[in-house]
């Protein structure tokens, strides 16, 4: 099994100090600036962006969440469009991404946001770079195929690791669409060691374009996260099928700079408050109505 190489903590700390802005920009500074800058990658029903004469705008579950958080701390809200490859650099000032299982450090870049919120999966390499809020949404990665594929959905065994092994054996010799720099990066799940024929988009693609790509026969199947799978099953009933899990259960969180603990703590308090008053459940039902059926335990313990 190929392990993802993680940077030594001391080296990462030195890189943070060398970032373009080594001065803290925590809750107090956000309040002084009067605006919360929300970095968001278009993804599922978390963030959908569009251009207006007044600049980029967005809507979705995480947009509603961040707009509410901005009101909670008494500042304006600003959406800042980004991509999976650049988002963490725009938050931390250190251009960083995952390449073939290794964390790659690029050139310094300007800090352009205060939070990343677009259904960001909490992964070990990302935890090196940022501090996450407490988990606020469930996730996992599944293998999804066109209904005409000879691949067959596995019979769940009750053992997640065994189920993942069965799915990996099922994908052997079949084309599987994947996406670097995202939670669908095959190096996160050691898929290069399977006999799957991995296919990568020629041009940068959004996660919600993966199923349309396999419907267009760019590949026979695709890696897909839970949120996009639920949407796709509603949008293409009978045309796709879930083969089974590729990952263990995962969780999503809002990403903050490590030098902004007060801002992160304020978000966790805000999240607690909207869970208690029912606002969170209303938002989740609005954007992902079927997620409660698939992940009852997560929401029972939220």
From TrEMBL:
Domain Solute-binding protein family 3/N-terminal, by residue range, is 35-291
- What highest taxon heads this organism's lineage? Bacteria
Record SMART domains: PBPb
What UniProt keywords apply to this chain's record, in alphabetical order?
Signal
Signal sequence, renumbered to the chain: 1-18
* InterPro entries for this protein: Solute-binding_3/MltF_N
| CDD domains membership | PBP2_YfhD_N
Q: Which family does it belong to?
A: Belongs to the bacterial solute-binding protein 3 family.
The family database entries (PANTHER family) matched by this protein are listed as:
ARGININE-BINDING EXTRACELLULAR PROTEIN ARTP, MEMBRANE-BOUND LYTIC MUREIN TRANSGLYCOSYLASE F
Spell out the protein name for this chain: Amino acid ABC transporter substrate-binding protein, PAAT family
